Amino acid sequence: MNRKIRSWPRRIRDSISQEGFGSFALRVLLRPVCRAAVFRAIPDIERPSGPAPVTTRLASEHDAPSIARLRPSYSPDGVLARLRAGDDCFLYLLDGQLAGFRWLSRNQGSLTDLGLVLPLLSDEVWGYESYVHPAYRSAGVNRASRPAFDRLCVEQGIRRKLGMATLGRRPFGLETNPFSVATIRTLRLGPFKKFWLRTYGPEAEYWRERLKELRWA
Question: Which residue range is the domain that position 143 belongs to?
């Protein structure tokens, strides 16, 4: 039996034991129409000092087959389509081998799970689908690549990195993170669509206005 399929009963059992059957059932029933995510903004990127332990670079179209081999859910044509649409793929290389990557967009932030998009300012970048192959996940690849990623941002005039974290297990909760600036909730039921914002932190007023530019995809 497929390992992923076999793990579902255990995941259901653990969820019920942790949050109770009533909460679990309510979350399952509401998930098709109600979603929630935390919006993150990492401000004031500074040029770090010292060499990056992991080799990094931006992908070219020639890297599409290697990226697709690293993540089975990808295809070379799909990777090429993203690159040609203007998104960048930031590669992590360990001992010359492709260990992972992170996708970047300068055009818009796609809050895929919520069905929303946010047009980006010229000094912003949207990071999404950060992935490290399981064989390299104990090597600290993601952490080691951050200095090189920040250098790239500085060179391109980027001052703020934006991203999203889906609130999967507790869709109406609030994830604690120093860079979280807003919680976004959506309701989609047939043709009816609506989203709500809750901003917080020292820049709450700024993000309340900035996120008014969110649009349905």
Answer: 33-216
